């Protein structure tokens, strides 16, 4: 059997919806509130493994986990004017408690900069307490007016990991943004997710930021998806809230801040990018089940009993070795039905055990990603599985990066970009003079969105709009 | 130094507020929304360890974790009429998205019976899929009109673990309630929290339940606190939502349900019950730090350097042994200040290392609960600490149970109850005829609340109100 990625790429949207539902990951569109989903048990485990991964990376780098209230009073949200402008059209408001009208409207947090800055001003008063790095993993809410899509554009983002840091100087905060970029790079690498890191253009930075660095990937349909952002907030919020910190020389000043976030989109991307026509292929780094053991029925009962016992032993060998495995030994489904079921759940390795394996004291291993199989001696099973898992992990990332790189193309003229993005999608890079006018013109001409520019400027070529010498490249794509 | 519990018991409320703030557990009353708190890093870790404990117990017993939306549409919440009556005065309502009025008000979930039943009706259609046990750990919201108190009576309960199960018959659901009671018993036992298990009276059962079983403990001020409940929901919700399941004989029927929950109150109780005048004493089962190592400064620099190196080795020995420890080696605070700091954080064991310990190759261990110290040879340190932790764990539970049992008293007349509850607090048990009239009369007479009755009826004595023969005991207490 050969891997086919026909349906996966040619009708990604349908593929994705079907996988979420059939693999019992995320029930979307049936709960009677628009734009929210339900995490089902299998999906919850995938999500939890991804959360544990980012938690570990953040804990290792001195971030401290906290939990802030969901409700943000209107006056607090309005403290930073740029910020509220960026969000106010999308805020859900609580206006009633029981039968009473509330005196002050309460926002369901769209993000937590103001709430956290408010508490920081009570907690962190002296320079010796800085730098400080907090994070929380919570639901945030956006009253989206655009078309919603499961996990990708929702009204309740259930997996919003937001980090918030405080520093004495602009430079330290800038370094923190670099650390965030490193952490996210490591995180996406562990998930085998390819990305471009861009500095968002001035006209599309976070509301209330000095600048925004963003991670974008490409979905199978060729549209770019923002999967992580890191913002240098400067003194915007601390000034707006009149929050000062005492310095070593006993004077005081507004501290600098950063914030950076990822969301449910990471889960969507892991599922989407490694897929094929059989469903998703979960990277071993986060798969809830690494190996599914499927007994192939024997003709006589005695062999069948031995075979099941063999399968049980294999299962317990794997579990003792710390390899999460499941034995699917029920009689109610045929092996074929079981294959389908576990392929749809993206389990990296299938271990088949039939009469032949019983005779030869072997197990037949099948890789979910390549659909290739091989026979392994029982006493070599654990190392063989470990090696295969490592190979799958590596190969998934390599294939995803290869797909990705093929679709990031440089153009010297706007017509080429237009044609490219409307035909296949992808990300186009063009030379750019650096002016907002020309940047917006690019968006208008190609009917797509500017993602921004590389962090290390590339001054080659001439601006595709005005023809002046380029100051940097501009990346542009159709986006979600 | 002797353990004193004077301040702890005589002014518990002040003690509790001070501990939450000084130990940096939970910032309450400063965030500008009434009745909500902020989990600070140390408190977050305590909370997380408690969550991990209940997660493990639920996973082991076949519960599957899920995540449902926060928002419940008004018409869905109104499906079960008893239920909504019980909650509607306490519901926060979202009525606006951006500038738009929503067509249908959305409730911030006060609990999730209706939301979960709605999805179960889509997921679980045949008897072979039952029983099914879900749980989630989420924030729920109550627009409390009573005085709020940190963790104990809040408007955002951030640590609401709610389990929801579906069964084919009434009896199976009743058995599930028993399982829930067993799980919670184990959970509270691991936390050293004493409790009484009562069947709540008819007039105080969960809104929409057949019956409610509750766990109550006593706070140091003698008031009872409900810390867990399990409800047999019968077919109330499935009938209200017209949710039927196909049975083996191909007919169909409304399934039976249960739900059971615990909240932030568990964290409050762990902190409150094991405290003394120095602060809380965390049970080793959930303490984020088990051992704090404090070097006692030497007079000369050379000894000091050796001493610090010794302390570092001890720290790494403990960490290698899987014992979570912290070395507080900073020069900025005196040992006395450090003692105070870590006692206030309830760390079970303090390991002091000074010139004498260096000379003798020993470590001086001090128990947080008894404040007793002893010298331990370095090569016996790990087993000694393991043993001491186990002893502390056991002793904390025993002391808490002893305190608790002393305050649960049986009375044969209502005057005794009245006097007892108004003087010291505690729980009073009286003989009861079983009638609601007499039950409510007890509440009125003693100005306290009926907790309910033992699960195994105790028919001794005569009803304290009407004098008829008792059918069971009635438990009554001043409550939170």
From TrEMBL, chains A, B:
One Pfam family hit: HGTP_anticodon
Domain Aminoacyl-transfer RNA synthetases class-II family profile residue range list: 41-283
Cellular component GO terms held in the UniProt record: aminoacyl-tRNA synthetase multienzyme complex; cytoplasm
PANTHER family in alphabetical order: BIFUNCTIONAL GLUTAMATE_PROLINE--TRNA LIGASE, PROLYL-TRNA SYNTHETASE
Keyword annotations of the record: Aminoacyl-tRNA synthetase, ATP-binding, Cytoplasm, Ligase, Nucleotide-binding, Protein biosynthesis
Cellular compartments annotated: Cytoplasm
Location, primary (coarse class): cytoplasm
CDD domains: ProRS_anticodon_zinc (cd00862), ProRS_core_arch_euk (cd00778)
Stated family: Belongs to the class-II aminoacyl-tRNA synthetase family. ProS type 3 subfamily.
Domain commentary: Consists of three domains: the N-terminal catalytic domain, the anticodon-binding domain and the C-terminal extension.
Single GO molecular function: ATP binding
EC number: 6.1.1.15
Function: Catalyzes the attachment of proline to tRNA(Pro) in a two-step reaction: proline is first activated by ATP to form Pro-AMP and then transferred to the acceptor end of tRNA(Pro).
Keyword field contains Manganese: no
Gene3D superfamilies for this protein: Anticodon-binding domain, Bira Bifunctional Protein, Domain 2, C-terminal domain of ProRS
Recorded catalytic activity of this chain's protein: tRNA(Pro) + L-proline + ATP = L-prolyl-tRNA(Pro) + AMP + diphosphate
Record's subunit section: Homodimer.
One of the GO biological process terms: prolyl-tRNA aminoacylation
Domain of life: Archaea
Species lineage: Archaea, Thermoproteota, Thermoprotei, Sulfolobales, Sulfolobaceae
HAMAP family named in the record: Pro_tRNA_synth_type3 (MF_01571)
Name of the protein in its database record: Proline--tRNA ligase
Alphabetized InterPro entries for the sequence: aa-tRNA-synt_IIb (IPR002314), aa-tRNA-synth_II (IPR006195), aa-tRNA-synth_II/BPL/LPL (IPR045864), Anticodon-bd (IPR004154), Anticodon-bd_dom_sf (IPR036621), Pro-tRNA-ligase_IIa (IPR002316), Pro-tRNA-ligase_IIa_arc-type (IPR004499), Pro-tRNA_ligase_II_C (IPR016061)
